[in-house]
Design a protein that fits this description.
Strand content: 35-45%
Helix content: 25-40%
Radius of gyration: 20 Å
Strand order of the largest sheet: 2-1-6-5-4-3
Oligomer: single chain
Shape: globular
Order of helices and strands: HHEEHEEEE
Number of strands: 6
Length: 145
Amino acid sequence: MGSELSAAGFLEQVQADWAARRLDAYLSHFAENADILNRTGAWFRGRAAFRPQLEWLFTRGVEGRPELFSPTTRVESARELGPGLWVLVQHREEGPRQSRATWVLSHSAGRWLVETVTVAPLGPERRRRPRIPRAPTGAFPPGAE
C-alpha cells in the first residue's frame, strides 16, 4: 500500500506542475522516451516530441478553456505490474469534458517517472455532423444514379 500511495502522490505532483504550467518541471516527470497519447489521438514519442505541443498549450492553446489546467481528478485504480512498475487509471473532469487517463509509472533509484500516458475522452466531445440518410433504391430516375 505504501508504494501505491507514493505512485498516487507522484501523480499529484505531476498534476500540480501541469496546473501551474511549469513546463520544465512537468516534462521532468516523463522518461526521455515516454509515449504520450493525448485525447485527440496524437502520439508523441518522447519528451522532445511532446515539448512543442506543451509550449503551444501553455502559452496560447487554451484561450477560453482555463479548466484544462484545473481538472478535478481521482485515481480509480492503482496496481503494481512488477517490481518498480505501476499502472494507474485516473478519472479527469475538465469543466464539461471528462476523460480517463492510464498512466504507466516506473520507480527506480528513488525516482518515479511516467513511461506512458494515454488519455481517452468519455462521452461525446465534439459535434458530429448529422448523418444524411441515403435515398432508397429506385428513388432516382433511370440513369441518374
